[in-house]
Structure prediction request, 597 residues.
Amino acid sequence: MNRRFIISFAGLFALLVILALLNLSMGSVRVEPGTILGIITGSEADPVSTGIIKEIRIPRLIGALILGGALSVSGFLLQTFFHNPLAGPFVLGISSGAKLAVALAMTFSLSAGFLLNSWVMIGAAFLGAMTVMLFILAVSGVAKSSAVLIICGIMAGYFCSALTELAVTFADDQNIVNLHSWSQGSFSGISRANTGVIVPAVLICMVFVFIISKPMGAYQLGEAYARSSGVSITGLKIALIILSGLLSAVVAAFAGPVSFVGIAVPQLMKGIFKTEKPVFMIPASFLGGAVFCLFCDLLARLVFAPVELSISVVTSIFGAPVVIWVMLGRKRAKEGMDNGR
Amino acid sequence: MEDNTVLSLDGLCVGYGKKQVVSDISFSIKAGETVCLIGPNGAGKSTILKTIAKMIPPVSGKAVLLGRDIRHIKETELARNVSCMFPQVPDTLYLTCSDIVENGRYPYTGMFGRLSGSDRDKVNESMEATGVTELAGRYFHTLSDGQKQRVMFARAICQEPKLLLLDEPASFLDIRYKLELLELIRKFSKERGTAVLFSMHEITLAGRTSDRMIAIKNGKVDSMGRPEDMLDPGHIEELYDLKKGSLKDGMLNGIF
Prediction:
């Protein structure tokens, strides 16, 4: 671990703590940091602020933090898989596929008069994600061009989003509001019960992601070199697909579509840490994604309060320029102007 | 079969699926021996190398590495005995040369790929042997093609192979770097007793740096022998379907 890594990790962690506090404290009702501490330790008894913090802001904070990290890692896995810096769950339509499956499952269950269990929602999202993923894999098998891959992904995304809108439009009146804000992407609907599912689901995935960090590192040199150093390529590819699909499915099930985090954050982290090694990039992407989503969610809640922006509005405003900037930077670096550490 | 045989091919047929590209290949390579595969484009030199590296399964016949059929050798174990170099170099952005060379320790490291002290020694030793020590901290993509190939060679020897498979290892290099790399490979092979099998277009260059040459043509082994016999103009004309008499002694160096 060199100094750059230590400083970058420390910096990200500090940002995470600061943003977490701001997210808990700011909003329509202001809660002072001292009171927050009191509520968490149990010494504060004011029922209104306790309710706000425990039932609304902490679940939302955990949601944004864990799902932001999950989305960013999912993007890093896809970029590794496709050897393409522009790959990500949103761009490839995987998020939208997951969203469509969840929307169908939700409208069906609502019209039948029962609520879906969180795990069933993740399952539906995973099926949707995998369906689009299989389509994308078929495309990448036929057309070797990475531009074609990205375009087909974007088209699959539009297609699924259109079908989702259709499903939402025909949903029962009273449920439209809920479904609508979710289908636009938001961390607002996350309940305490949801976090009890989100946290273990993402953590389990992350354990497996760490387990495949070594073969991922070899795979970055290309399939031929990876194989010649002893990587079982098929196993690695299946693991990458299932894990990236699961991570984006969890996000889609609870927060709907969140754009740009999957591409922008890993690219940004590569630029900050100056490495691509998965052992560092996995924790860095997770932490970076968490920080980015906490920041964007804070703005989504506060800028036009009491009206809330959908999360993708904010992530796009900050994420899209980052992608362009990173791509131009990447081009410069490729031309050899960025010489060594 | 002698004790120091590293690789022996016995009626090996290589190809993709059922389609045979080269059939009935039989030869063996001893420790410290450098053998070059030559032949027209598309003759199947790469296919042979890929089959021995277990990247594609053999159509029939067998390849025996250190007395064992490669089909029964697990990936990691194979990687501890065989390392490869391909014509394409990796396309990376933020990986340094030492990151790339360290990858050669893959079959030896534990679950998260952490290098032990002796792994690190091997990395440094390999970089020194190929003269890339001073490039260690540089980003791989900023190197010249010649430097990149030397780093890839350092990665390959860092794997401590008994057999090195090199597919057109010097294809994008100019003549000086080609010679340099080939000399490096030959020196390494003699010093460490590593068997080397490589393919190359420039036949005279290949001849200067190999102990034996094997010509592949029309889906089979056309001929094999010492470089001086294989590079006889008459033989080359026949192998590459050149017009009779278009090659005269001495012109060979100018053309290839």
Observations:
- The CA atoms of residues 38 and 215 of chain B lie 5 Å apart.
- Residues 175-192 of chain B form the longest helix (18 residues).
- Chain B has a mean pLDDT of 86.
- The longest strand of chain B covers residues 5-16.
